[in-house]
Amino acid sequence: MRVLVVEDEQLLADAVATGLRREAMAVDVVYDGAGALERIEVNDYDVLVLDRDLPVVHGDDVCRRVVELGLPTRVLMLTASGDVSDRVEGLEIGADDYLPKPFAFSELTARVRALGRRITSALPPVLERAGIKLDPNRREVFRDGRQVQLAPKEFAVLEVLMRNEGAVVSAEQLLEKAWDENTDPFTNVVRVTVMTLRRKLGEPPVIVTVPGSGYRI
Known about the structure:
This protein is α/β, with parallel strands linked by helices. The protein has 8 helices and 11 strands.
């Protein structure tokens, strides 16, 4: 899952990004609304964690732009105000969810994951395919009943493959969904991660390489 965090309190923004990355999400960060508009025009995001009271360009205008562009990106709006009228207004602008500050990080993570599930057709919270069971909320993976310990990027790649339900996923798509914008697009990080993931999942191999196209489970 790829997330854009837009928050002008830099310490908070960086802390949220770090926490979400530990949950195997690819996260980009900007500190004002203008930066957010630039990113959503270039990158595909599953979820936008958007502070409402932003400098340069207000968060409301960023949210309106997401709607105008017809993006599938889901918007979780943050604000220091907990008034019901503010929450209603934010939702009417086009936000998909609303979270007042201060918030518990566990709740933020749960809301981001819930919004991410709404990007694609309805899938169960726990994904199962080819003897693999993946629970995004618990960050757990089992292969034929045996628990498999994965690094965050390995988990992210496996989740993308499983959510595509047998369809081929290109290396470029994996790079887009599992890594942030600072990753060199010419690196072999995808191939290396898939190799390590295959080894950890064990025999027989469940990740199939489709020459010239990508990977599938």
